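REQUEST
  id: r-88c1
  op: predict_structure
  target: Protein-export membrane protein SecG
  payload:
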Amino acid sequence: MNVLMTILLAVQILAAIGMIGLILMQHGKGADAGAAFGGGGGGSASLFGASGSANFLSRSTAVLATVFLACTLGLAYFGNLRPTAASGSVLETVPVPVEAAPGAAGGVPATPAPTTAPGAPQIPAQ
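RESPONSE
  id: r-88c1
  status: 200
  body:
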């Protein structure tokens, strides 16, 4: 179980780093307006086509986001698992009360303990 959680955590970290990189590589919506007036570079257009880079990056980001979400759900599930008792009964885990000493009524000692410090004056009971 511990190995599975380690693998899920490693995949989640790699997916998060990949998403950060892909999101930073994408152009904002305002960048398309600048590219229409000749301000855009032609490096990505030669590799993916005019709109191919936007589709490739956005689809890759969606895939990594899905992997990240699946790893998060898996880690949450395995992190909340508790070991169960052999029979699964809740009543078997209740502590058993300690028996009272013989001769004591209802678990109360036969002679009450003094309530004052030693050497203090005793006040008679009324």
